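Example record

The entry below shows one chain as it appears in the dataset: sequence first, then structure tokens.
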Amino acid sequence: MKLNELTIIEANRGLRKKEFSSVELAKACLDRIKKTDSEIKSFITLTPDLAIRQAEEADKKIASQKNGNNFLLGIPCSIKDVILTKNILTTAASKILNNYIPPYDATLITKLKKAGMVMLGKVNCDAFAHGSSTENSDFFTTHNPWDLERAPGGSSGGSASSVAASQCFYSIGTDTGGSIRQPAAFCGMVGLKPTYGRVSRYGLVSMTSSTDCPSVMAKNVKDAAIILKEMAGKDERDSTTSDKKVDDYADLLDSYNVNGVKIGAPKEYFIKELNNDVGDSVKNAIKKLEELGAEIIDISLPHTKYAVPAYYIITPSEVSSNLSRFDGIRFGYSEAREKNSKAKNLLDIYFKSKGKGFGSEAKRRIMLGTYALSSGYYDAYYLQAQKVRTLIKKDFENAFQKVDIIITPTSPTVAFKIGEHSDNLLEMYLEDIFLSAVSLAGLPAVSVPCGFAKPKNGDKEMPIGMQIIGKPFDEKSVLGIANVYERNTGWSKRKPGIF
């Protein structure tokens, strides 16, 4: 196996045994990026010099044996371009931020640096994280390593493709309404969304502040558990973070037992719109867990059908507020500011900055959100959506009185072709049909590979994802179930063979 194809556990073991160095790991990943990224297009910004410097520092710490039991020391990763990195270009995949160099790190970056991360660069996403395919990036569309004609999912498409193509060992993205779980399913990776408040949002380019969640893309469950431990915890700069104890998730996996665990299968998630192969794979995965000792219980989450409509009122409303800071004065092209200095109003700067302002999806969400929040419509739309959100949350609370874990499909289909949904925005928004309710309720969830299927319009087998949902701050059970399933199947070991 090539160095860049190792897992975090395997790479850490090799580093400790002096079988190779962190610099060699970084160079293996950089070589892989050079070989493959002209076709995959994961990275917006590469930082090879920084990666080598960080790898050299990691090798010194490993040699001096001062690293303790730090699994991430010297392990190369990628970072979604909505996460602030000090002195490194951060664009949110939008040309309005094409020259923005943050003066500080996001809290999670500070924590990962302390853990010894080696950052290879910033990866592509839908601009401002608005989308489910990475086709809304202002720079380029990222391609799925399993089939270059297909989307990697979104908005964290660059995170998924970079890990799936072994360009890095793991990636940090964000999940607001499914943006780490859906691309994980499309690319055959493990995508972990922690509980809202488990990881600090300080230093994110905000999208929907009440659901934004820094999240993990990894090659397997144990790697995801290792990364979460380093990221999680209270942050005084983010009042929504919790001071609940951060578990040593990876250690807990080894002792987790599925016997007697009550798993809920909600009928609302196995609907006619669900692809047959996807549905069968998830049902087979549930049966596998039953064979291993879990108890399967049929449950109902009756307000599920309202999750997407509620999400697409709440999200544009918060987007319209969060994006108001990008007014052509504080961020963006200097020449755009100069040319628009005599603009009659802010809309001229927003929408007419010679193509360097907001893209069509951002404009759409700004206008929808502003409308929903406007006088005379606030009660009818935004307030009503928040009431529905409360009902969705109560559905989960009621279900978790009967079960320990809930399992659903991650996405209703396998990865679709690039451009397939371009003319039908409703179809694109419905990609979140199994994901947005979890986000609205603030729950932890992970997508794990559970099978493969050939789409109707293609001949290459594509990955299928299963979503495992847990109680608030019960990441250890979510990861525990996922690890038991992964250990007893071989889906996560399959890799794209196109390069």
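Notes for this example: Residues 332-355 have pLDDT under 50 and may be disordered. The chain is about 40% helix and 10% strand.
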